[in-house]
Amino acid sequence: MKLLDIYARMKKDIAYVERELEESVHTDHSMLKETSLHLLKAGGKRIRPVFVLLSAQFGRYDLHRIKHIAVPLEMIHMATLVHDDVIDDADTRRGQLTVRSKWDNRIAMYTGDYIFAKALTIAAQLNDPRIHQILSSAIVELTVGEIEQIRYFYRTDQTLRHYLLRIKRKTALLIAISCQLGAVASEADEDVHNVLYRFGYNVGMAFQIRDDILDLTGTEKELGKPPGSDIRQGNITLPVLYALEDPQIRGVLLAEIERIRIADGQTDVTPFLKMIRNGPYIEEADKLSSRYIDRAIDALSVLPDIRAKRDLVDIAHFIGDRSY
Amino acid sequence: MKLLDIYARMKKDIAYVERELEESVHTDHSMLKETSLHLLKAGGKRIRPVFVLLSAQFGRYDLHRIKHIAVPLEMIHMATLVHDDVIDDADTRRGQLTVRSKWDNRIAMYTGDYIFAKALTIAAQLNDPRIHQILSSAIVELTVGEIEQIRYFYRTDQTLRHYLLRIKRKTALLIAISCQLGAVASEADEDVHNVLYRFGYNVGMAFQIRDDILDLTGTEKELGKPPGSDIRQGNITLPVLYALEDPQIRGVLLAEIERIRIADGQTDVTPFLKMIRNGPYIEEADKLSSRYIDRAIDALSVLPDIRAKRDLVDIAHFIGDRSY
C-alpha cells in the first residue's frame, strides 16, 4: 500500500520526530510525565508531522529546524484531544483509557495546558515571527471551534455552512497550517506556502467528513468505540444534515434525535444509525469529501513534480478512500 | 494613599491597556465574548500590566509596543483563573459568579483556552524571540505549578521548599516576567531585565504569602468568600506549615486537617482557623513575606532613581502591608 511505502521511506525522520516528542514532554514532574507519555504512547498516525516533513521538502529541508514545527503541531493536536475527552466524558480513545478516565478531569485539563505550553516553548525556538502569528491565530480558531461544537450540540436547525465552518476550525485548519508552516520554516517561496495551505485545508475537510462518516458506518471493532458516538454527544454531522433535508425522513429523524437528546445520549442509537445508513446520505457526504480531495490535489498542480508532491497526492487519495 | 496616586498618574495608560484588553477578547462568537467580558469586568488590580508599564520606563517607553506584553500577561493570568475555578469548583471570585458557575465547567475550560490563545496572538506581534521564549517557558512552569498544587492537596508531610516552589510557579513567576518583559520590550539593558525579574519574583512571593495569610485571617466581607477556602480545598499554606512544626499543636492540627479532608472540605473550619490564628504562625509567615519585600527593594538599588523606581518601591511596600 502506497501509504505504508511513504511512511517507510520517511521512517528515519518520523522516528526522529517521535523521539523529540517524547523528550519534549520530559519533566521532573512524575505525574505530568506519566499522563503526557500515556497520551503520546496512545499513538495516532502523526499525520500532522508527516505533512510538515513533506511540505518542508519544497524549500531547504532541514530536519533540525522543521522539528520545531512538526513537534509542536502534534502536541497541540494532543492537547486538544485531552481537553476534548474532558468535554465528551470520553473513557477511551483509540481503544486506550483517556487521561480523564485513568486520572481525572482536573488532571486532564492541566495535562492539556501543560502539553500546549510545552509545544509553544519548542516553536519559540524559531525566530520567524510569521510562524508565531500563524500558529497562535490557528489556535484561537481551534478553541472557537471547540466551543462552537458545544453550542451546536443537538441543534437540528443548523445549516451546512455551520457544519463546514466547525470542521474547518476543529480539524482542517491545523492540517492546513502543518503544510503551510512546513514550507515557511524551510523558507520556500510565499506562493508555495499558500498552495500548501490550500492543499492542507482541503485534505483536512475531507479527513473530518470521512471521520464523521465512519462514526456512522463503522463497527465497534474498527472504531475502537461504539458507532454513533457523535450523535450520542449531540454532534450533528454531514450525513445527518443531508438526511434532515430529506422530507421523507425528516419527521422521524427529528423525533429520534430528540429521543437521544432527552436520554442525554445514554440510549440505544441503532434506530438512528439505520435511518442514516439506509438512505443516500452517506454517499452524498462521501461525494463532498471526494470533492475536497480533488481540490487539494488540484492545488498542488503548480508545484514542481518532486517525490514529496507525489506523496502528498497519495496521502490525499488515501484519506479520501479511507474506510478503516 | 501612595498606591492610588500611582494608579492616578498612570490612569491614561492603564485605561488604554483596559480598552485593548476588551478589544482583544472581541469575537463574533457571542458566548465567548460574553464569558470573556464577564471575566474582564470582574476586574482585579491589573497588577501585572502595571508592572509592565513601570518596568518599561527603564528603557524606551512606547505604549504601542509594550501593550503587546501588558495585555497578554493579564490575559494569561485571567485564563489561569478560569481554569483554577474549574479545579476549585469555585462559584464566586471577588464576589462575582465564576464562568463555571454562570455557564459550566466545559465552557470555562474552553474560555480559558480561548483567552490564552488570544493572548499569544497579541504577543506574537512582537518580533523579539526572547519574548516568546520567556513567555512560553513561564507558562510551562505555571501549568506544572497548577498540577503540583493538586498533588499536594492535604499533604501535611510537605516541606517549606515544596510550598515556596509552588507559589513561585503559581504566582511569582508571572509577576517576575511582567517586570522582565516590560524591560525587554522597551529595549532596556540586559542587566536591567534581570534586576526587574528579581524584583518581580520577590514581590510575587510576598504577594502570594500575604494572600495565603489573608485567607486565614480575613472576614468573608473582606475576602468576597469565606475564610479558610484554602484548607477546604486541601491547600496547605505557609502559616499552616509553621503550625505543623510546632509540637504543642501538631497532633490536634493533623487530626483537624484529616477531619476536613474526610469531609472533602464541606465542614465548619472555624476550629482550624482558631488554631492557626492563636499561635505565632501568621506573624512568622508575615516575617517571611517582609523579607521577600526587602529583597525586592534591594534588587532595585542598582537602577537609576527615576519615578518608576520609586513607584515600584511603593507598590512593593503596599503589597507587604496589604490587609484588605
Automatic annotation (TrEMBL), chains A, B:
Its cofactor is Mg(2+). The keyword Magnesium applies. Keywords: Magnesium, Metal-binding, Transferase. InterPro entries: GerC3_HepT (IPR014119), Isoprenoid_synthase_dom_sf (IPR008949), Polyprenyl_synt (IPR000092), Polyprenyl_synt_CS (IPR033749). GO terms for molecular function: metal ion binding; prenyltransferase activity. It comes from the Bacteria. One of its GO terms (biological process) is isoprenoid biosynthetic process. The keyword Magnesium applies. Pfam families: polyprenyl_synt. PANTHER family: ALL TRANS-POLYPRENYL-DIPHOSPHATE SYNTHASE PDSS1, GERANYLGERANYL PYROPHOSPHATE SYNTHASE. Belongs to the FPP/GGPP synthase family. This is Heptaprenyl diphosphate synthase component II.
